[in-house]
Amino acid sequence: MLEHTKKLPIELKFIGPLTNKDKAIEALKSLGFVNVSDSVPWRDLFPEYSDEDLPGVCLAGSRVKEGLTQKQLSELTGIPQSHISEMENGKRPIGKKRAKILAKALDVGYKIFL
Predict the structure, then answer these.
(1) Is residue 82 part of a domain?
(2) Which label site among 31, 70, 92, 98 has the fewest CB atoms less than 10 Å from its CB?
(3) CB-based contacts of 60: which residues, under 8 Å, 6+ apart?
(4) H helices within 1-114, ranges in order?
(5) Average pLDDT for residues 15-36, to the nearest whole number?
């Protein structure tokens, strides 16, 4: 199982011969860096989600990623399935205590649910 590690964004800019660009990128990848030059901010791709929607979307996404139904997650956490549904649909706040329970069951950091 992979451990969660906090990765801080570091922006690097270089000046040099364009012919060596690919070699530089490959060298940085070998050190654990990831090329995100072609990435797009998620908010640009999903404008339909507001900040209020995020905890529920993260919960639903994390649950699906683990291949669990709401009922299975309910059985793992002791949180009623109806409450999980309401949290995923933004009708019930998750709260810190439940966020920690859900995060443990879904193998994610609890802060994504707050």
Answers:
(1) yes
(2) 31
(3) 88
(4) 21-30, 42-45, 54-65, 70-77, 81-88, 95-106
(5) 85
Domain range for 86: 54-113
How many other CB atoms are there within 10 angstroms of residue 59's CB atom?
A: 26
Residues 43-92: pLDDT tens digits?
Answer: 888 888 888 899 999 999 999 999 999 999 999 999 999 999 999 999 99
What CATH number does the domain containing 63 carry?
A: 1.10.260.40
Q: Based on C-alpha coordinates, what's the Rg of the chain?
A: 19
Residue 106 lies in a domain: yes
| Domain count across the chain | 1
Q: What is the pLDDT of residue 7?
A: 63
Task: Mention every residue, 6+ apart, whose C-beta is less than 8 A from residue 65.
Answer: 106
Using CA of residue 82, residue 88, residue 89, residue 93, what is the dihedral sign?
Answer: positive
Q: Which residue has the tokens 């859900």?
A: 102
